[in-house]
């Protein structure tokens, strides 16, 4: 019967509980008492024993054959002089001595002649059955324990010898600290999807009444640090059902077949305790595309994935078991794993927007004392692109800096320094630069900032510093006023221009460029090449995607890039990339040549203060006029310029009664609101 079969969990609890230690303590105590209660017999020499037998003090004798030992009971204490110094030694009334086999007859004769008052006896000890068994089994037990220890070490933990195929999933109990949806901010869509999962587990009848089927699997994907694992932990805290958590790498060990066995065991546990949730973190460790890369059909990962596919398909409709998985690389997962019926829902967990960052900052600032002037909305505006983990790190760094300085409240200065530490690394206060290098760095960063300020489509320059951080001698921060989800061609061209601003400043001022622009040139070249080969922003190449990433899925799909175009096209691509870089170089040169006085003023302030914020920069850049907009770009000379611009937003059109249309012959510039090209 199933109820009478001891489960491995109960055996484990018994072995790890106090009962086994109590039993061991009783065994040790009984052995100790047995040895203590045995009469203490003093050992004497054979000559002393024979001399006692010749005397009249022996009251009882026992000859133990096999051990060749004689025990004597005396009527008075026996004292003998022993050792080199002939010291007297008390042996008491119970003594024993040993003899060798040739002395056997002499000893027996002496015992008979002594004729003790209480008699004498002989004894032939019989070996104990249990003693013999223990003497035989102990070596095997030692070898077995050693073998178990080695196997458990190879297994990577203290697992049982035959427990290779058991699941290593952790069961999140109600006693553990709970994370709820209130602790998750900035990912409202993902939380909404998983709220529905929680409701189905708690009230399945509500959904079954209208014929709805719960998704069998939910895949959370997105960049690192966006809160995928935190969301899953929140589901565990909210659902109130068994929650099994495991990492994708825990399925695969050095033994073949272990992964598939652990998958079966995990799903069996979940089905037994349904309704339940299984969470697999980093599922790409076992869910990579099959049939590619190293290994064949016998590959351990493929066997594990096959078993997972079978288990997800084998879910009974009435079995409330839901699989939640998280990954940073959904592109390398096997298509069979992503189809409806397995992972029915794929929820993107992206970096939060402005409101999301504000909500995340409010969650992580709880319990951190701050001055009243701290504006979390302003902090959220200064951290576009930051993930939840980045924002938590910013507040933690600010708290550490505050404690280090001996202050009691976190202020704007600590938050500003924390953002800089997260973006560019800690400040290198011990790095000492001479005057020449400081001046070169100031002109380099000033060139970036001034060109960015003069470009029409760039974001505001919020900070410039010549304090070294990380691998950089200084940096210029250009931050958007709001979240952006796409970038125009003009914005990319402006980015190229201010990326070249540092190099151009070195050329204009010192006539001898340094290696400091190496990273700027690398980024500008990469952007220009993408404009040509991916974004279709070159009229000579056209709107064609050049180059294909056909890397093996097993290796991450990005192991290699294949060139699928001719040498002639490659030469054209190189020419277009060079044209973009040269045009950016020329634009930066024109700006810095025109506003050389502003550049010198900016450098003087940088050398004096080392860091300038947005307000100080706006004061320096007051004389700078935005450059004129570029000519309208056409993907082909055969295509005419359309003079009609975009319609107004619906609310504005409704207010005016008609949709606003710009005048014929003028193309409206969205960024500035002014005319760009006259027809």
TrEMBL record:
Pfam families registered for this protein in UniProt: AAA, AAA_lid_3, Peptidase_M41
Segments traversing the membrane: 129-151
Amino-acid positions noted as binding ATP in the UniProt annotation, renumbered to this chain: 222-229
Enzyme nomenclature, EC number: 3.4.24.-
Annotated region (Disordered), positions in chain: 660-679
Active site: 445
Protein name as it appears in the record: ATP-dependent zinc metalloprotease FtsH
